[in-house]
Amino acid sequence: GAHSVNGLSWHLNKDTVNTCTIFSFVAPNEIISFNSDLKPFITYLTQNQGVSSSQLFVQPQSGTEPFTG
């Protein structure tokens, strides 16, 4: 389902690699311009996904994803 963070809709993927839980916010449509910090995403995870606010945030990553090929 869609999850709203910072006024935009995101698909949220959750996966586990070894002992690390990985959350990926993926835009369902192309975003031309985006200016934000990570705080709203971390707040969303602690308030809606059961992530403890005391957990260590180890490695943020970002990237692009093609929508047409």
From TrEMBL:
The organism's place on the tree of life at top rank: Eukaryota
SUPFAM superfamilies associated with the record: Concanavalin A-like lectins/glucanases
InterPro entries from the UniProt entry? ConA-like_dom_sf, GH11/12, GH12
Matching entries from Pfam families are given as: Glyco_hydro_12
BP-aspect Gene Ontology terms: polysaccharide catabolic process
Q: Which GO terms describe its molecular function?
A: cellulase activity
Q: Which UniProt keywords apply?
A: Carbohydrate metabolism, Glycosidase, Hydrolase, Polysaccharide degradation
Q: Which Gene3D superfamilies match?
A: 2.60.120.180
- State the family it belongs to: Belongs to the glycosyl hydrolase 12 (cellulase H) family.
* Protein name as it appears in the record: Uncharacterized protein
Q: Give the species.
A: Favolaschia claudopus
